[in-house]
User: Fold these one by one.
Assistant:
Number 1:
Amino acid sequence: MSDAIGCARWAIAAGHAPARSRGVEPAFTSHDRLCLLNAGAVLANVRVRVLYAAGAEVGPYRLSVAPRRMRHVRVNDLIFPEAIRLDEAYGLIVRSDQPVVVQFSRQDTRALMNAGMMTTAWPGID
Amino acid sequence: MSDAIGCARWAIAAGHAPARSRGVEPAFTSHDRLCLLNAGAVLANVRVRVLYAAGAEVGPYRLSVAPRRMRHVRVNDLIFPEAIRLDEAYGLIVRSDQPVVVQFSRQDTRALMNAGMMTTAWPGID
Amino acid sequence: MSDAIGCARWAIAAGHAPARSRGVEPAFTSHDRLCLLNAGAVLANVRVRVLYAAGAEVGPYRLSVAPRRMRHVRVNDLIFPEAIRLDEAYGLIVRSDQPVVVQFSRQDTRALMNAGMMTTAWPGID
Amino acid sequence: MSDAIGCARWAIAAGHAPARSRGVEPAFTSHDRLCLLNAGAVLANVRVRVLYAAGAEVGPYRLSVAPRRMRHVRVNDLIFPEAIRLDEAYGLIVRSDQPVVVQFSRQDTRALMNAGMMTTAWPGID
């Protein structure tokens, strides 16, 4: 376990998955991307809750990240218990039973070009 | 309240809302975006102060974020007590009476394309 | 002083000011931007050191940030004691005698479009 | 050593080096960039491990950063013990025997334009 790095809880406030795309799929499809890194020796069970500006929170979405692996999830692909609403602002709360590192990026191909953004999520330290 | 995550004070130094845009409104309007996440069970009352390179600070701008909700505010839409000056560098100090998570992004459509940026704000830990 | 927020020391590792630009100056000139916020009541005296991959460090570059003000500096405009080398990777060490918040952004207009990036600097906590 | 700043361990979750590029090389070649700053007086010996979604981790890749210097490494240039897989998500664990500051950026020129992203890595504080 000495290789584990990160936190058990993270938050992202800037979610907003563009609904339109230009260019070939899936390489140029607009999407928000949740990036999870599990550097430890134990499988991480992750639950993601989605908060919107209006309406009740949705979730948990359940994911797992194998030991010494990482996993990138296109937020557009979170469909159970309910598809993420496109073109609508949202936030994410990520909880894991093992330390993980969470970053967040966006590919926006609504216009002729491809805009990108990236940030490290906010770690929740109780 | 055990779901609350974040801090009561945040700062953003890199504000600079582009004054011009290309493309259809409002989707492609240039803007800086303040992203507030309230994961807790209590309404968060938020006050935002705006600092410029010259002149007195302006504010507070008052916002609220409902419990278990998030809220994205286009900085261009902060108009009371005074509209944010476009094409001018600024910084933000955010104070909340409940823990919130703050991120900041920019959409810049002054040129033919759409540049994006995103970062997590700086948390003020007294 | 109760309004002060931030740290006295910050580091940026990702500096790399593009040497070429397209579009009208100065709005579309490529540049790295150092963003300094002084939310406190006392003038902040800031010294910036520049580290390169080869050769001795350069500096200090001296700046000040008035109380309750912010200041954005285009790195291309740091010319004393020596102009920043364009198209060359660099890092920055920022020291201030008052708490400040430091973010860093880039506008890259070498190509037909305008790429942007932004991050919060790394705070040095001794 | 009083000038040293940073941490001995860092993690990046959002790695994904684009395989295609447009525009002249090497200025416009798509790449992820690992930015290392060593503000201290002692050479930093750095080992980087690469984690993927599938398969065993790869590494260590060995780098050094001279005292009072910085170093930017294009991830595409990490080829020993094995080239980084392009167009595949990955994460990085960075360990250093001296404090360093780590940031991470991407240049994506797959489309007609040049998208950029930048973030500060996650510091591992044991």
Note: Chain B touches chain C through 33 residues (CB under 8 Å).
Number 2:
Amino acid sequence: MPDHLSATFAALSDPTRRAILARLSQGELSVKELSEPFLITAPSITKHLKVLERAGLITRSREAQKRPCRLESAPLREVDTWLDRYRRSWEHRMNRLDEYLGELEAKGERKHARRKKR
Amino acid sequence: MPDHLSATFAALSDPTRRAILARLSQGELSVKELSEPFLITAPSITKHLKVLERAGLITRSREAQKRPCRLESAPLREVDTWLDRYRRSWEHRMNRLDEYLGELEAKGERKHARRKKR
């Protein structure tokens, strides 16, 4: 089984590549359009695009002359699924914290009520 | 602002490190206990633990002699928050696909009804 997740995480470990994905989440863009807001050279953008493409995070159209880049969500959905196990564990911990705080509050209220009675 | 997310994604880009986190999601473990199911040397495990520790994904107790490792969920929650923008976009696309399939089905039913009338 090829290790998709490792390739995805490695591709996401760079802030420029994440910024490229964020821009593509608004719609398809050509390499020229993509390069505009970045203060790096076109060859460097092309390198980043290749890493994203190999990880399956983007595809480039073969038809149009501009070969626009497009975001592919499948690898991100894999990350989302991978997170499930951890999400369950931190939600469980948050629920236990809520319960504990609720108990503390209830105790505080009882104390307050007893003080009022005196 | 230190780039937490890049460090987190880089730490997660290795299958052994993800396996270590999966084991720690069940509870604290010493380095010796952690090493057992892996076919790699203890120094190699220690290297992986250092990467995880630098990314804030695990902490090691300073008190007990065994210095057990413990999973820290904060960086994973950051990844979860980072995914939000993309989750919204793929859910939006899925909803549009559902609508489209619903329309196709409705058309199919109308056609079927017309055919029955004849």
Note: The first helix of chain B runs from residue 4 to 12.
Number 3:
Amino acid sequence: MATHKVTLLPADQTVEVPTGSLVAEAIQRAGLEIAQPCGGQGRCGRCAVFVQGEGARRRSTIRLSADDLTSGFALACQTVVEGDLVVTIPEQERIERRLVTDKTARAIELPFPYDPANQGIRAFRLYLAEPSLQDNRDDQARLELALAAVGYPQVEVPLDLVRRMGQVLRECEWSPWVVLETPPPGRPHAAARLIDLAQDPIEPVAVAIDIGTTTVSAYLVDLASGEVLGSSAEYNGQIQFGEDVISRIIYAARNGGLTELSRRVLGTLEEVLARLHKRTGIDPQRIYKATVAGNTTMLHLLLGLPPGTIRLAPYIPTVNLPAPVRAHEIGLGIHPLATVDCLPGVASYVGSDITAGVLACGLSETEELTLFIDVGTNGEIVLGTRDWQVACACSAGPAFEGAGVVHGMRATEGAIEEVWVHTRTYEPTWRVVGNVAPRGLCGSGLISLLAELFVTGVIDRGGNVKLDLDTPRVRQGEHGPEYVVAWASETSTGKDLVLTKVDVDNLLRAKAAIYAGFSVLAGSVGVRLEDVQQVLVGGSFGKYINVEKAIQIGLLPDLPWERFKFLGNTAILGTYYALLSHSERERLQHIARSMTYLELSADNTFYDAFTAALFLPHTEIVRFPSVASIWEGEAGKPSPRQAG
Amino acid sequence: MATHKVTLLPADQTVEVPTGSLVAEAIQRAGLEIAQPCGGQGRCGRCAVFVQGEGARRRSTIRLSADDLTSGFALACQTVVEGDLVVTIPEQERIERRLVTDKTARAIELPFPYDPANQGIRAFRLYLAEPSLQDNRDDQARLELALAAVGYPQVEVPLDLVRRMGQVLRECEWSPWVVLETPPPGRPHAAARLIDLAQDPIEPVAVAIDIGTTTVSAYLVDLASGEVLGSSAEYNGQIQFGEDVISRIIYAARNGGLTELSRRVLGTLEEVLARLHKRTGIDPQRIYKATVAGNTTMLHLLLGLPPGTIRLAPYIPTVNLPAPVRAHEIGLGIHPLATVDCLPGVASYVGSDITAGVLACGLSETEELTLFIDVGTNGEIVLGTRDWQVACACSAGPAFEGAGVVHGMRATEGAIEEVWVHTRTYEPTWRVVGNVAPRGLCGSGLISLLAELFVTGVIDRGGNVKLDLDTPRVRQGEHGPEYVVAWASETSTGKDLVLTKVDVDNLLRAKAAIYAGFSVLAGSVGVRLEDVQQVLVGGSFGKYINVEKAIQIGLLPDLPWERFKFLGNTAILGTYYALLSHSERERLQHIARSMTYLELSADNTFYDAFTAALFLPHTEIVRFPSVASIWEGEAGKPSPRQAG
């Protein structure tokens, strides 16, 4: 049998292997290590290597993108040696980072050139005429004259600033720094508004906020460059009063409930801003504008609007297009006169997190039939093109945000974000955010784990843990059957990290609601799911989602992988765009006004679709041909797809 | 000697008297009574009778107007019988009321026809489409649509109302009453503003407020009819922190001083409004607009603006033309979303009490050279015509408002408003507001008393009480020399009611400041006082002022009486006009912007003029020919003018 030389870099060792050997075998023969957490099934992508030479035949390229392949990457466990090769084994960490970055994570960048003049906050110095007995005009007239001279003939001055004006103007010797909010272009009759007046130079910043039912996120934005100076997220402090919007609405109807919920989310925002303050050195008092997205209930609670009517037919919110308010009116801990611009939503269950998401994902600008899914606590779904959009919402629950799951957590340090389970031993391997000992599972980790447990047969299609498997990983736990992801000795908590049957049920309900949502939505406009040209996935954890695994559990429709794009938190991204650009803000307004809303609770087909989707991947497995192929083997014991 | 028949009505007695007898003597001969509190000097006008027949020769007609004379009135003590006469003696009370009404008091009426559409507050019922699953627009969109349908396409809705909207709209079954503030005509791009939203019908009222340094006055105004539903006044609760604006400004600079002063005036307004509530049954929460006049310092304190710079050269206020604020922003106890429109002033010492006064008195519309004097705590003076106006202010102090005088009080029940002192006995007679036992002296009473004491020789030209007179009325009191106006047995307080030397000095300083003010003002524009065609006197007590007596003490220039008009509180009158009419409000703005301000403290001639005016009536008595004529007799003992 012919042999071939395989040179391994950076170790610079060369081994001879017979034709047909796997690259992974060549590496092992050289005494080098390469991780194969999935047991060499080609499912985890962790054995990706860089291959030079003609003698490599890739049997499977799961987990590698077209770009990866073009660049020369191959999976060591799925690539056969048929000639001489030079194989570079990347640092394990480098692979991870590359995969994460390329496939999912992106730097926060604007899709348009930033023009400070196309947003509403200006800071500059004014030069006023000094008063005398001959020129005894009052302070405010003097200030207004100076503002008119630089192009602002109409400026509203809030009473608080009138109160401070006399002292500031004299302390700065009639050359104050001012912060002005200017109206959007095309409104020549609208007045500008003075937000601040100070002796010292002011470098205004702004904040883009996404208030999710589970997670509150914020970008601190430099208004000079448009850059994100820092971002932070925290669980919404309202969670203890209910995990989903319905329980919050019910709590808000209690005596003092609304006030308490408002207070909580403001407290969460305070924490987030304090953390950004610590990290960037920027005092929240320097924040002169907040643009806020959130589902309709979250914005009602932020603004102190009773949300009760959202819950009851005909599901009418107080307002979908809230007028801007001042920070002090709602008690938001930024500059008290800062404008808080709550972005426009569509209906009670399609809020501005979705309209901002649509803005960010580009659905409203494309000719392609696009499905946009925001996998938050509420799964909201938009289907359409630049010419039309329909939207619906399905109460997915917070499982994918790490809440409602025993060891769920947000995607912060210590969160398992991807898991591989060995096909034969059922032993897991994981990747942890921050590369530390694991503390819990974030949304992408949960999807990954659920899929791995399913395809390795640890759980069945109904989500039941198979306790008869020959591994200590499955056991009857305190809360019923469970799978141990990490032993106490491996975790940062000192306790076993598990996924319970109850967790699995919660995850199944969440994914079923989302799947039912987009299938009913497609049906309502007579579109087949397979005609969807792109699927854009948002949501705070969507950035790290693994499409293969999301399809395996039936969360996403079974379409070719290249049609999926994972965009992360599109709500805050769109909010960031709207904050920095009058025209993006107007586009968002247009999206909110023109989108058609489908009320699922008024649609009988939804409940049937939901029930059918409660299985893995779905009751009708024909809807998931790629997953069905795994099931060609013995029932309950899948044979890995495309295994050589 | 010929005799004549004098028939006296309503007693219907006839007496025969010799030619040359006084009517007063005929009355006494018939055994009837007629009051002659001034001792028959023709000074008090209290013996006015109605005379029919040709045989009456009026020697003096002091205290009678041209109208009075035409109607047939004559002074019994100054009218000689030269033929048969029929004399009707009016009820004493009727005379008083008639005199007060004709000469001074007027019903509060608008000088223009009231058009509810020419002011900014509207209340009406709206009919909204009820929501359904098919029409799931949000509450606010529904409300805005209904407003647009009745002509208000742009309406700002304050957050407080958005917060209550859901409940109200459902309680009223989608037919709410709304209160709207609409922009003035000629501002088509300005938005209207929603002020209230309720299930029950709303009849909006408004309030016109004059914040004087000493007295705070308010008119409660029905916005349907434009009528004044009630008026009330109270001492400004800030008085205990200083009687004039300067001491208030100094107090405001203390730690917490500004807050305390704001709180005080708001407390006073609360009292005034509570009294109006009690009297009219109208809850202050139904007040949807407040239009406020006041001197610049008072408005700074109301708005919470530090007034410190008003006091120091170059005397610059924070603002002369304050933007409207919402009642809740300053803590004014009316509807929290009501607009508080603080009227525009001219300079630190010529505030909107004066611009409103100029509006009310008609100076800005007349071709006649007009002197407008507002005799409040600060004597403010405007000279001009419709083409030009100059203004100045002189710190008169609060003496004429009853403060700074031991037994001073406002012109409420129990206040002596006019006094006559008998030429020979020095016994006083008085008229008391409400016709009850006296409690104190109001401004007009003080002027009257000062003049009487002067012309009867109880005090000398320097204001010293002549203790050597043969009457128990003059005495050395606890605080120096004093004159007893009423004995303890006659007063409602059970104590002697006195005017002390210190009181006299305060009154002299007040009148000297005012006289110096208008003489310097006239000089500054090269106008002679005697060319002034009308003198319009405002001020809260100006309605009851006695021109003869005001000239006698040198408070007013010695001009023919018919040139004087006493207009009362012109500040609140102009405020009332501006409240009810967009065009009056605009006229007032124009007055404020076009008036020229003369800073007396930058004018060296003022102090000299003030010092010269500290005498009765003035150091240069030649300036007061009519008073000089009284002094033709022996020095220190005036001979009454025109006595027969």
Note: The first strand of chain B starts at residue 3 and ends at 9.
